[in-house]
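Working notes for the structural subgroup meeting. M.R. asked for a predicted model of this chain before we commit to crystallization trials. I am recording the input and output together here so anyone reviewing the notebook later can reproduce the run.

Input as submitted:
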Amino acid sequence: MDEENTDIGLSNKIKIPIIILTFVTICAMGGMFIKVVYSINKSEKSPDSLQYLRTIGDKLQDKGLYEQSIEQYIKYLKNTNIDESSYSEVAHNVGELYMSLSNCQEALVWLFHAETIGTQYARAEELKIHIDTCLVKINSPKPTNLNTK
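Returned structure, recorded in token form:
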């Protein structure tokens, strides 16, 4: 019997393009994966993606759950990069909530945040009244109800 020299498998002419195409496909898929991961991570930091914290804070405030509302607002302020006016609005709201809880010391912290950051704040006059009210309450010889509402 003659032994025939037959190669079982693919020739180099076919192997090389398959290897190249496989490599290109893997690189393209890796690039797409990195892009998707980056876009998800980026969207988590956008103000719109954390707007739900402010919405939850509003709902909790409407139900009279001021401490829980404050927590949500503070998380919102710490994790978003919002414009000065919005920051002042939320910080002022936190200050008002602390005033409702008879805690003018903590209220002043947030009222001063609102005052310092919001140079063009729409509720500036109301903010000044709240600051003055808390300063009077803190400096008063007799502790009184710090709730101004």
